[in-house]
């Protein structure tokens, strides 16, 4: 099974918007989407920050573009998103659901959004739901917007607030989890928690340098491919 992760699109009401004044996020997303179509994925996951400003216009344009994909698209909220505006544009193949069973395993989509905050938090009720899913399913793939293992860069200011509690939950059910996927950090990172691999996927607009202050990486916009096979999981970061 081939799954593509697109993350941190940061589309805006104005299609000419440039993130940090540098990159037109609409243009880079179209480039990424065209390359993703050529991948012919079985599933696409958009791991948060679909919009920069939470505008209805940004989600409406995104909806039209995602409907050109010949597969299901699963979405989660990022810290820049507007859940109400986003929900009104979830139609057809575009969905926001708590989990999805597949031949690769069960994708569990976590909500770390907090209104008007850039840090993440998983509520007590969502943690309880996560535990129920982990009890019920095997070969789980956890998807969450915020990173929860420190990267020793400036982005750690915006980490998942209850990262210790979340990591303890994963450790408790480590035998049930095959992979964790995050967005948010605008670059590719690999980590482990209790032996569980974690991959932070690329942004479709701009990559941030792995530094203690805000600097920009020279890497191109991109996306991440996950090839799930009987022999394991191959993770490929692709640049446009």
Category by helix and strand content? alpha/beta
Radius of gyration: 16 Å
Low-pLDDT parts are none
User: Percent of residues in beta strands?
Assistant: 25-35%
**How is the main sheet built?**
6 strands, mixed
> Cα distance, first to last residue?
22 Å
Along the chain, the helix and strand elements come as EEEHEHEHEEEHEHEEEEE
Write down the overall geometry.
globular
Query: How much is the average pLDDT?
Result: 97
Total beta strands: 14
Percent of residues in helices: 10-25%
| Strand numbers in spatial order across the main sheet | 6-5-4-1-13-14
Q: How many individual helices?
A: 5
Give an account of the 3D structure:
The protein is an alpha/beta fold. It is 22% helix and 28% strand. It is built from 5 helices and 14 strands. It has a 6-stranded mixed sheet, with helices on one face. The radius of gyration is 16 Å and the shape is globular. The mean pLDDT is 97.
What attributes does this structure have?
240 residues; alpha/beta; 6-stranded mixed beta sheet; 5 helices; 22% helix; globular
Give a short synopsis of this structure:
This protein is an alpha/beta fold and 240 residues long.
Topology (elements, then pairings):
Blueprint: E1 2-6, E2 18-19, E3 23-24, H1 25-39, E4 43-47, H2 56-66, E5 72-76, H3 83-87, E6 94-95, E7 99-102, E8 105-109, H4 124-136, E9 140-144, H5 163-172, E10 177-182, E11 189-193, E12 196-200, E13 222-229, E14 232-239
Parallel strand pairs: 1-4, 4-5, 5-6, 8-9, 9-10, 10-12
Antiparallel strand pairs: 1-13, 2-3, 7-8, 11-12, 13-14
